[in-house]
Amino acid sequence: INADSRLFYRGMVIGTARPSTEALESVPHHLVGFASPGDSQSLAQFLASATHVISSLHAKNTIPVIVGGTGQYVWGLLEGWKVPEVPPDPELRALLEKKLDELGVDALYAHLKELDLEVAEGIDARNHRRVIRAIERSCAGVEQGHRESTDPGFDSLVIGLHVERSELHRRIVERVDRMLKNGWLDEVRRLIESGIDFSSPALSAIGYRELASVIGGAMSLDEARERTIRATNRLVRHQNNWFKQTDSRINWIDVTGGDLSDVVETVEQWRDIT
């Protein structure tokens, strides 16, 4: 079950590192490539969909594997968050986007910190869409922080894969270069030609707007590459806020050398216990 918010969308294959066709066919995958990039997928929608899939798989005596790095989605599912669906507020959103244009995302983020410091600390300050959405929810009176964990209705084993920082950076550079070699620029061009609005939340995914700027002549490919690498490294640091090395719920396993045998052993031991 995919819990990476960018893998929800159709037409975004290369830039989101979607699993290969062979991988998708070898094991049933859920919540991958089902939504239009022009649509917005909320946390509440994800929790409802993922919970439904989990129930269906349990009914077949199948153990689902939740995979993906969107921390809010992962913990929301594992901790049984009850998240009301809050429809967007067009008036408030217009005011916030005007503030964004005039004062920048830092001013919006400062506003969010005043409303709910805990939520602000769990959001990438540069992701203006996430910041605006969090402000909307706070203004609607939705309690976003200080959530109490409830029983999600299932047991879980949480595994975190640790890679040494220098090796992780090397892999990030290699990954971006591989995506570009595999036709990422053409993928972005196809999205533009299909009429997708690049202000849509889906296309805030790292690299897409940078490559759109290349196509529009506002940025060189080399600059877009460097910005994408830097943004990916920032994302890694942001994910560390959600998945902390000190979190006792997470079984951290070092896979710097590529050996996954400890992962398999941990899963087998858990299955024997449960």
Percent range for β-strand residues: under 5%
Please state the CA-atom Rg, rounded to the nearest Å. Answer: 19 Å
Low-pLDDT runs of 5+ residues are none
Structural class: mainly alpha
Query: So what's the overall shape?
Result: globular
Order of helix and strand elements from N to C terminus: HHHHHHHEHHHHEH
- The portion of residues assigned to helices is 40-55%
Please list the strands of the largest sheet in the order they lie side by side: 1-2
What is the count of helical runs? 12
How many beta-strand runs? 2
Between the first and last Cα atoms, what is the distance in angstroms?
Answer: 21 Å
Largest sheet: 2 strands, parallel
Mean pLDDT across every amino acid position: 88
Structure report:
The protein has helices at residues 21-26, 43-59, 71-78, 90-103, 105-115, 117-121, 128-139, 165-181, 184-193, 208-215, 221-242, 261-273; strands at 158-162, 250-254. The chain is mostly helical and 274 residues long. Helix 4 (90-103) packs across helix 5 (105-115), helix 4 (90-103) crosses helix 7 (128-139) and helix 5 (105-115) runs parallel beside helix 7. The longest helix is centred in the last third of the chain and has 22 residues, at 221-242.
